[in-house]
Amino acid sequence: MRLLELAESGDLAAVVGELGTLTPEQRAAYAKDTAALREAIQETRHQRPQEEVAARYAADMGCQVTPEAAADWLAQHKYAIQPAAWTVDVLDLYPVAWQAELLARLDGQEAGMSVTWLRTLEHVVRATGRPVPTSDPFLFYWLPDRAGDHGERPGHLLGGAPGSSLAERLRADDLTPVLLPLIVAHPARFVTNRTHWLDLLTGLTSDGLIDREEFVRNLFADLAGDPPHPHHGWEIVDSLALTPSEHALVADERAALVEPLLVRLLQDGTRMETAPSLAFLRALAPTPAENASAVRDHVALLDGSLPVASYAQEVLAAVDEAGLLEPDVLTEICERVLLRPEKKLVRAQLSWLDRKMRRDPTRAARVLADVAMTFDHRDASLQERALNVVARHLKGAGDAVLPDLRTAAGRLGPGLAERAAELLGVSREFTVVEQVADVLPALTGPRPVPGPIETAVEVAQEVAAVVADDWDVVPFERALDGLVRHAHRDRSALSEALGPVVRRKPRERYDCTQSDLYDVARAVRGDEPRENAVHLRGDSRYARVPSLAGAMLMARLTEAMDVIESGTQPFLLAVPTHTTGALDAAELVERIGELEELGVTPAPVDLAQALLRVAPSSDTSDAPNTSDSSGEEVLRAAEKLRSAAGQRLARWLREGGLPRQSSHREGWREQKPVSSWEMWCTPTRPGVVVDPPFPPAAAALFGPYPKRKTSLGEPAAPFWVAQLPYHREELMARDYMESPQAGRGRTGILPLVAESGGPAEYAVHLALATDLRMDPEAAMDALLVLAARGQLDSGLLGEQIEVLIRAQWVESNRAHDALRVAADTGAYATVWSVLAAALPGLLRDTPVRGAGAFLSLGVTCASHCGAKGEIPEVVAVAERTGSSQLAKNARLLRDALR
What we know:
Elements: H1 2-9, H2 12-21, H3 24-29, H4 31-40, H5 50-62, H6 67-76, H7 85-91, H8 96-109, H9 115-128, H10 136-147, H11 166-172, H12 176-185, H13 188-191, H14 195-206, H15 212-225, H16 230-240, H17 244-249, H18 251-266, H19 271-284, H20 288-292, H21 295-301, H22 306-321, H23 327-337, H24 343-359, H25 364-371, H26 380-397, H27 402-409, H28 414-424, H29 456-468, H30 473-498, H31 517-525, H32 548-566, H33 585-598, H34 604-612, H35 631-639, H36 644-654, H37 696-699, H38 718-723, H39 728-733, H40 750-755, H41 762-774, H42 776-788, H43 794-806, H44 812-824, H45 828-843, H46 851-865, H47 872-878, H48 885-896
Helix pairs in contact: 1-2, 1-5, 2-5, 4-5, 5-7, 6-8, 8-9, 14-16, 15-18, 16-19, 18-19, 18-21, 21-22, 22-24, 23-25, 24-25, 24-26, 25-26, 26-28, 27-28, 29-30, 30-31, 30-32, 31-32, 33-36, 35-36, 41-42, 41-43, 42-44, 43-45, 44-45, 44-46, 45-46, 45-47, 46-48, 47-48
């Protein structure tokens, strides 16, 4: 028992000594007990003294009396301990043949190696005279060990080599003739993702221990046979710094590596996804002759993202300069590049064509026809650059090219038309840009909502669709009403139909969304509510301040559960009659009248939502015209109702519904921008209180707005708009504007706001302006809808965009790109009206960065819509000396407006 006592006390030296006094049979008898001692500290070994841990592990290792058991033990605990002098002391207790068999078993495992394990095995090799292991794990650590970065060996540990440098130690090492050639034969497995290895091996080529040509040839053969990740491949080739002769030596291998990289780039991707492949390709540096065989692949890459297209353009330009590109292919390249929106690509292409004509003037006629494609570009500065190229080489091209150039020049903006006419010898009228009327979306009006759902099975299907995708308002409203209706008719049949629906829970949300209809379905069935059920949410771990719209939706769903449980109300009043969320007043009169006949008092939140969806009688222009009844007839019908709900509806209609609230913020143009959004240009939110009061959740939609204590949990959704279909200013002035960064995500509600009713003033336009950075596509769709409805205040929007850009709340390039998209639809006059309001502020004093792009867009829009009139700030910039692009574009716009 002495061995166990010594191990437990942590006396390492005594443990090793005691093992030496025991026979193998005696040590084997202790195996279970030493294993128990080791396992007792397995979880806490990192907190214990190193010698104590080593004593227990040494005792347990010494009791593994067969080579097989010892090898398995070492493999099992290879990460728990690091070999040290005691490891060798324990192994030396066994005869040479035993150690030789252990060495063979450990070498065959090929895993768990480290420098300290390597030193242990090398000791066994030298003690037994057995051949040195040649497996990859041994090779992986032999060279780093000889590099001398892992400390000194214990004095009685055999192995190592003398010398002050790696080269000296390798020359003195009798293992070098065996191991180093094995590494050089297949070096890629050692250097991939291990730059320190590559440094070691390239250093040995300089010292003459490795033949560099052989090393390079073998390395590229390995890489070609098993291509590495592009990032690792780039590291290897870049660090290797091939000489021209080595570059030619591995031409075939490089070609094999290039092919899969091109295939990967053809799939394109984000900048981060394509960067490794591009870096590897540039490091491989295919020659123009090598790239000539893959011209078609590179031409296809021109349609990719900017980094990919830029690389392909560089390659193809080099192929062309080598005289290996066919003229037809160059024309195709121009077709793919010259009309792309990225100015960098277009400028590079024009420079390429310019250089080509300088090298070979005899080709100017054909190349100028390619250059003229740029006259169709939407950016006036690029048109001007192309016209400059034409001017430089027109004389050498001859008269044959003039007809094509004159035709192309007809598409230039008026700022360049006069110069083109003079250059090409045509009349000024020939180059006048055709003026076109604005192309705006067709107004179709809101669509009617289908009637109530007929069967319980259809209700279940609609509920399942809403839970799976809660984006659309109409399916939700019909499903909620269907649950109330069919629970009132036959709750057991509806419960049975809902069985499969409630098996799949909706995704957990921080705010209430339409998918929480799931909880109403569970309530119908009498199921145990889920932890985050909508009516329990205030007490759950997900509790947070909901959006105003979310709180209203929560109140409606909770009330629907109460209505279903009580069985009093057979249907809901607030189901909209139109897809915008609007409710026809005549329909609401009929619904309340039906409840009167049944003696049912409508649920208060349901009634409040219904009233908020009725068109104000003072603003019938926003109401969908689907009723044959006039406003007066509807009001007379409402006044005949005798219930409290009916009388409230009559009063609501008579007084014009919810009073309008202006969101305009006084002095927002002059106020100096500050870091706090709320202190600067957030819309005002005065709030109104109606009498008699609405339920709190409904009143909060239009009442005084308290400052939120937390950010919004979910992005805005269409049901926000459907709750206030005639009061979009009140909607946009509140939660939507709480923060310009308030997760827009999959919102896209701005077009719905544009289609809804009520004034579109400060808040609605500010939402358009701020969302140029978050959701520019939705913002521009909304802009076009407002313009088509005659509700766009382009002056207000333009000034808001200018102020936001100046304050760096919106990036100028995002605003420009969004307006460019709108102009490309044909809405030139609309976009120009916004630009005309924004440009003075963008150019005043020090023009904002990116102002030149707005000027260029202004040239295009003004030319197509025929806008005229001087803008003093544009004229001031145009009259500056110099040839900056800003000044050039200002001159073009100044001339277009004359």
